[in-house]
């Protein structure tokens, strides 16, 4: 009972938690959003949201970079903090620019932002390629 109420965290528990967050959020983003954008690239390239006024195609390519390329590296735990930055920026834009003023549920963007921001702060953990290389 004493352990259940403790605020202490073992190093193993922390590393397992980081692994679960990294792989779960990464796999969900890749499967549910990244691969879909990749499959339907031709249809989306002229109508993709352009919140930063870069153009539809560059906006789609930046989203693809974050949601596919960076996410694969995050799942593996390779260059974790560096790869988390574009994903966090992607979801910050989604939450604060694209969904600004939207009164419907925007939980998905906020959850991804929170999950990947946590990975950015915590790093890859021991159970990652970065951890195996001793970074």
TrEMBL record:
It comes from Niastella vici. Keywords: Cell membrane, Membrane, Transmembrane, Transmembrane helix. It comes from the Bacteria. It is found in: Cell membrane. Pfam families: DoxX. This is DoxX family protein. GO terms for cellular component: plasma membrane. The chain crosses the membrane at residues 12-35, 55-75, 82-98, 110-129. It is a multi-pass membrane protein. Belongs to the DoxX family. Signal peptide: none annotated. The lineage of its organism: Bacteria, Pseudomonadati, Bacteroidota, Chitinophagia, Chitinophagales.
């Amino acid at each position: 009972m004493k352990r259940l109420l403790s605020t202490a965290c073992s190093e193993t528990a922390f590393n397992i938690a980081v692994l679960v967050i990294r792989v779960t959020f990464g796999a969900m983003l890749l499967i549910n959003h990244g691969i879909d954008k990749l499959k339907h690239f031709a249809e989306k390239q002229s109508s993709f949201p352009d919140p930063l006024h870069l153009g539809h195609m560059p906006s789609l390519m930046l989203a693809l970079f974050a949601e596919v390329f960076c996410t694969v590296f995050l799942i593996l735990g390779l260059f974790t903090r560096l790869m988390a930055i574009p994903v966090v920026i992607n979801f910050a834009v989604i939450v604060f620019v694209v969904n600004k003023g939207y009164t419907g549920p925007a939980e998905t963007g906020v959850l991804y932002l929170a999950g990947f921001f946590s990975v950015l702060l915590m790093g890859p953990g021991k159970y990652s390629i970065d951890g195996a290389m001793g970074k």
